[in-house]
Design goal:
21% of the residues lie in helices and 29% in strands. It contains three helices and four strands. The structure holds protoporphyrin IX containing FE (HEM).
Length: 107
Amino acid sequence: MSIVKINVLTVPAEQRELLEQRFAARAGAVENSDGFEWFELLRPLEGTDEYLVYTRWRSEDDFQAWMNGPRKAAHEGGGEGGGERPKPAATGSTLWSFEVVQQAAPK
Ligand code: HEM
């Protein structure tokens, strides 16, 4: 079964909008990658200032291929166009890895 990679981004309240705009501006950044299955940006409702960038992949190898290649383009700049890299909206990040052991979808 698939593997799930979740990037946990710490985002101060005043930076949320900027973070979401940056993700919106990169729509399409992973969709065509081999083995890519799902992406969700999860905004916290309560209890934490961490956003989850949920991604699901056919295999670890597919994820590693994206990490070592197309990821760089997906994380370039902030839409301001060239020059210095803009300051990240997130103040920290941690990568979590899981394998899918069970799943269900509505019938
Ligand atoms: C699980 C795989 C991923 C990893 C390991 C990862 C890595 C990171 C890291 C370390 C940051 C925070 C530092 C920075 O802003 O440069 C970040 C932010 C970001 N990532 Fe990713 N990312 C992943 C998935 C994605 C995907 C699939 C997209 C595109 C759809 C994406 C787009 C962005 C954007 C727009 C930011 C916001 C930059 C900011 O903080 O302003 N990331 N990612």
